[in-house]
């Protein structure tokens, strides 16, 4: 729904390095007005004009959802990534004007839960910061288990343990501390919902363990944004738009479609929401599916692609767009 | 402009009337001479000046009388308004959305003054003035959803979003086209649409759900739906079918123009920011056939639509038995001339 996505002009009003990898950015409305409220777990898509390239990267909102004066995000620098986080870390200054999207939530709390059990790994802490503020304001019951490499890289560990000494449990990998997951899940009261945000390995570990222990699928929530990966350049043809162009090495297929002036739908830009699903009319080569939206049989069929994260290797791919 | 509110009834003596202005702005739903289901959604971002699409929540000449009728229905049957425990936050979302929208869109009728969480709401047409604390239920005479929907025309379904589906977990429903909140509460999108014929096979619901799940904050959508109602009756509920169903047998060739109404629903969809739920307002507009045919294009077109609509649809919409009477009446206003595209009068 890119065509109808509401955008907001903002100014960067604060930049705070938290540790050697993570920096926090604060945005306020450029027109001085109030920002929309949102629900804990929501993200915003940040537009970055990086030379010739326009990047649109999603970041979880970590500020208090009820605070309409400013949004904050925390960005982990990814030196091996395509450059979105590097751009924010290196090029953005206080006072810069930027464009962000209205909040979108693909990782919402299930408000029926009697208890919210949160499991975070590394930078995956950010959506929980907003959710905890939301729950604290409404007397919601939560418990956070937060694994990070060490004290120095543990963003917000001190804030969280000070504000919620009885609800926050921290595990430092370098100290050999590890979450006793089976024991944790075994002791939860009926009506507990699990939320996981972190590396893929952690998400799979918690989901598999919960499933093995008989947790209902509906009670296990997770968010994993995939960053689009670089790859070999390839040629794409858009049948409806009658356009043919190259997708660059560090460009996603979706970004290339947008750069060609075609307004394609999207929401999460991370292979999760399904909004950008596109029909493949012809593919002389191999589609490299990287999303977790399409079912396995859909991926094998070669008839669908998620252009936000997936790529192609071969002579040409023709899309129904 | 200032609205002249009607003093009228939607029951017993049925004194409901549409002014000339109300007839002209009626949301005639047929853009061509036939009708079939489609995912007929569009953005709800205003519309032509004076039209029912212009404001986020249309207030018209029937406002005060509709609110009196709602109070009567709720008095007789409190289960028309229900909210499951996890939906209170969505109720505050709805209250905020309506109060902010109405005070911005109708500053002469509604005022909202906010000082942090201390809110002051003034509803001049209904003579209500309320100071309360936002998010503190104890400061309002009803829960937030019931409080604000007693002051807003149209039914309201509050939907929770989870598991890639929408769940009807709260609502205020007193002006409905023969469906029951008490029956549907807790159901998901496919379950509450199960009685609709043909559409599921056409894949309409799957596509509609996908569209709805992706509606974002600040980007509401809308569509129209329609049916036929005998007498200007808002509360055509299953709960009261024994009272109104029998009225369908009172149509005659002489009274069909006055007693048969086209009932159109403006359905809108808003993402709710704090709860990530959705609200689905369903606003009912009624027009008698004799008023409708004063717009020649609408008279011609409605004749063709009602005459040709598939039998399953006429049955589901509850006018199959009266269709011959209605078509006979409308045929007098159809000279066979071509009609222009679109819903607006020529």
TrEMBL record, chain A:
Q: Which UniProt keywords apply?
A: 2Fe-2S, Flavoprotein, FMN, Iron, Iron-sulfur, Metal-binding, Oxidoreductase
Please, which domain of life does this record's source organism belong to? Bacteria
Names of required cofactors: FMN
Q: One MF term from GO for this chain?
A: 2 iron, 2 sulfur cluster binding
Tell me where in this chain the 2Fe-2S ferredoxin-type domain is found: 234-321
Boundaries of each FAD-binding FR-type domain copy? 5-110
InterPro entries cross-referenced by the UniProt entry: 2Fe-2S_ferredoxin-like_sf, 2Fe-2S_ferredoxin-type, 2Fe2S_fd_BS, Beta-grasp_dom_sf, DmmA-like_N, FAD-bd_FR_type, FNR_nucleotide-bd, MRET
> Does the keyword Iron belong to this entry?
yes
PANTHER family hit by this protein: CARNITINE MONOOXYGENASE REDUCTASE SUBUNIT, NADH OXIDOREDUCTASE HCR
- The protein's name in its UniProt record: Ferredoxin-NADP reductase
Which organism is this protein's natural source? Primorskyibacter flagellatus
Provide the taxonomic classification.
Bacteria, Pseudomonadati, Pseudomonadota, Alphaproteobacteria, Rhodobacterales
UniProtKB/TrEMBL annotation, chain B:
InterPro entries cross-referenced by the UniProt entry: HODM_asu-like (IPR021848)
State the Pfam families in the record.
Answer: HODM_asu-like (PF11927)
The organism's place on the tree of life at top rank: Bacteria
Query: Would you tell me the protein name for this molecule?
Result: DUF3445 domain-containing protein
